[in-house]
Design a protein that fits this description.
Elements (H helix, E strand, L loop, with lengths): L5 E4 L8 E4 L7 E3 L6 E3 L16 E3 L2 E3 L5 H5 L3 E5 L8 E3 L3 E7 L8 E3 L11 E7 L5 E7 L1 E3 L2 E3 L5 E3 L10 E4 L5 E4 L2 E7 L6 H9 L24
Parallel strand pairs: 1-16, 9-10
Antiparallel strand pairs: 1-2, 3-4, 5-6, 7-8, 7-18, 9-11, 11-12, 12-16, 13-14, 15-17, 17-18
Length: 232
């Protein structure tokens, strides 16, 4: 982690105050001065649990006597569902750890690749880290860009959350809540949390019943000097 200040949003859903943290590299967590919630700072993401048939399985911080398949564990993590006027519905199952999301590409694949004609979406475009928090509950942290060849590469055209500007900065780590809408390029995706939705099918149906979030930026209507099709 660099010595540059870190900007995060308080993880308390009733607070969500913006926090600017100096000397973040020396801290493991920071207390929100508004509500007192303790926010972890870029803790290493735990690897997915192993699922050997002879071992007990750890899921969401709880011990289970019966093993679960890898797919069963993933089905409890969460989903991203494309909910956009220009792109067909696609549902992606999140996994514990790092999830990169972006345009389909064989040369620079993301964890979850969207089949799209959206040329303003990078490949990959944004990252969602899924980790088990101190309370034993899953936490979902959204960042713009992705780690490419050992270096963090921001998206060309930005990542937006819930129809709000400005785009996420290089310091932003935003905690996602169920139903949040993420815009990458001109495409919108809805996040569904695994603790509130029981299956991929239920997540897809719930999102299809939602209204579309407004598109923050239509790059095709911007001057070519300010936004360009993404080759990233």
């Amino acid at each position: 982690m660099s010595d540059e200040p870190l900007r995060i949003v308080c993880g308390n859903p009733n607070c969500k105050a913006g926090l600017l943290i100096k000397n973040a590299a020396k801290l493991t967590d920071v207390k929100c001065p508004r509500c007192g919630h303790v926010n972890p700072l870029r803790q290493p993401v735990p690897p997915p649990p192993s699922f050997d048939s002879g071992d007990t399985t750890v899921l969401l911080g709880q011990r289970r006597s019966a093993p679960l398949t890898t797919q069963a564990a993933q089905d409890r993590v969460g989903w991203l569902v494309v909910n956009d006027e220009q792109t067909t519905t696609q549902t992606f199952t999140l996994q514990l750890g790092t999830n990169t999301v972006g345009r389909q590409s064989q040369q620079r694949p993301a964890t979850h690749m969207i089949i799209t004609h959206d040329e303003y979406m990078s490949r990959p475009h944004c990252t969602i880290d899924v980790r088990i928090g101190r309370s034993g509950q899953l936490e979902y942290i959204l960042r713009d860009g992705a780690l490419v060849s050992g270096n963090w590469k921001p998206s060309l055209n930005g990542t937006y959350l819930n129809g709000k500007e400005p785009r996420l900065s290089q310091y932003d780590q935003l905690f996602l809540d169920d139903g949040d809408t993420i815009q990458i390029g001109e495409t919108k995706l809805v996040f569904k949390a695994g603790n509130l939705t029981t299956s991929q099918q239920q997540a897809t149906k719930a999102v299809e019943a939602m209204d579309y979030e407004r598109t923050i930026v239509s790059f095709k209507r911007q001057p070519s000097t300010t936004s360009n099709p993404s080759n990233s």
